[in-house]
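[agent] plan:
  1. take the single chain provided in the ticket
  2. run structure prediction with default settings
  3. attach structure tokens to the ticket
  4. add a short note for the reviewer (M.T.)
[agent] executing step 1
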Amino acid sequence: MDDVLRELDELIRSREGENPTKSYVASLLHEGGDHILKKLGEEATETIIAGKNENVEELIKETADLWFHSLLLLRYKGLGPEDVLNELASRFGRSGIEEKKDRKK
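[agent] step 2 finished; step 3 output follows
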């Protein structure tokens, strides 16, 4: 499953230096962090709305958009999916309640 995330990250990396008028990824990266955050917020909202609806396909598509734009934000910040996957892996074997409590320390 994480192969898809890595491939998508590689695609995003390959588009970083491209012409912003010819690449959606390049255009978002060129616009900067605030623009990417705005787009991510829009996608999060659309995912929430899709989650309230009965259309499962809509939820899948909106979640895909949310994940894509999350990867774009990570790349903009110099991070990649492996950073998030490593964090998730570190949480295995721990209660979610304990993990959240430890974050507040």
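[agent] step 4 note for reviewer: The chain has a mean pLDDT of 92.
[agent] ticket updated
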